[in-house]
Design a protein that fits this description.
Layout: H1 3-10, H2 16-21, H3 25-35, E1 38-42, H4 46-53, E2 62-67, H5 68-71, E3 74-75, E4 77-81, H6 87-111, H7 121-130, E5 139-143, E6 148-152, E7 163-168, E8 176-178, E9 181-186, E10 193-197, E11 203-208, E12 211-216, E13 219-229, E14 232-235, E15 237-243
Antiparallel strand pairs: 1-11, 2-4, 3-6, 4-5, 5-15, 6-13, 7-11, 7-15, 8-14, 9-10, 9-13, 12-13
Length: 248
């Protein structure tokens, strides 16, 4: 089988953009406002999850590989996709962006931040590339037993889109145990708050990259956010990360 035919065979099928459009975006926005994160429900099918995961060992579709332990990021590894992105990854990135841009613009207005985002992802990428951020940031992460991801923020340059999405591709309780998605929130003059988000296979969690607005008794204030993954107790876990700004 040729390389291109092999890639087509593994490429997920189906109307991903249509599924994204059918999400209850009013509920998603409300969850983001109240909890700082929101889940999509199983947006990707088991076959699509398996197809994406199976491409982790493929050559030629990634621009770099990162071994977390070498950089103090935790344990495990991940790979950044190259352009052009696989069709399913590009479909997710392009279709998720418009509704999240509406949330991002509202949040920036509430926090007194001047930055506004266009409604089309291609237009936003043009801004990134003009600012010297032209490396694609969608990534595929792989965890084995004992692996984890330290709390962090995915900021790759001056331009940062405020929201991102992580999709669980493995089956919790079957393919792996442990490995929960964790989000922390540091409010001014308060102790940090942790949110553990259980995910099903094919489900995405939408969360802030670095900060979000919170309504307090004296008005809206900005809180700092970090995310990570707890220790995997057994098995193997793959995750797809959709980040909307590109990197330098």
């Amino acid at each position: 089988m040729s390389r291109s035919a092999h890639a087509r065979k593994l490429e997920p099928s189906g109307d991903i953009s249509g599924r994204v459009a059918s999400l209850d975006w009013t509920s998603v926005a409300a969850q983001l406002d109240v909890f700082g994160c929101a889940t999509t429900g199983p947006l990707l099918t088991p076959d699509e999850c398996a197809a994406i995961s199976s491409r982790y060992g493929e050559e030629g579709i990634y621009r770099s590989r990162v071994i977390m332990g070498r950089h103090g990021f935790g344990r495990g590894e991940y790979k950044y996709f190259s352009y052009p992105l696989p069709d399913a990854i590009a479909a997710l990135r392009g279709s998720l962006y418009p509704a999240l841009a509406d949330v991002a613009n509202r949040w920036n207005e509430q926090m007194g931040i001047d930055q506004r985002y266009p409604g089309d992802h291609a237009a936003y990428l043009k801004r990134c590339h003009a600012a010297g951020q032209a490396k694609p940031t969608p990534l595929l992460l792989q965890y084995g037993e004992g692996d984890y991801n330290c709390l962090h923020q995915d900021v790759y340059g001056e331009l940062v889109f405020p929201l991102q999405v992580a999709f669980l591709l493995a089956r919790p309780g079957e393919d792996f145990s442990g490995g929960e998605f964790v989000l922390t929130e540091q409010r001014p003059r308060m102790q940090s708050r942790a949110e553990v988000v259980p995910l099903r296979q094919g489900e995405g969690v939408i969360f802030p990259v670095h900060h979000r607005p919170v309504q307090g008794t004296r008005g809206i204030y900005r809180v700092n956010m970090r995310h990570g993954v707890s220790r995997l107790r057994s098995g193997r876990r793959h995750t797809l990360g959709i980040i909307f700004h590109d990197a330098k």
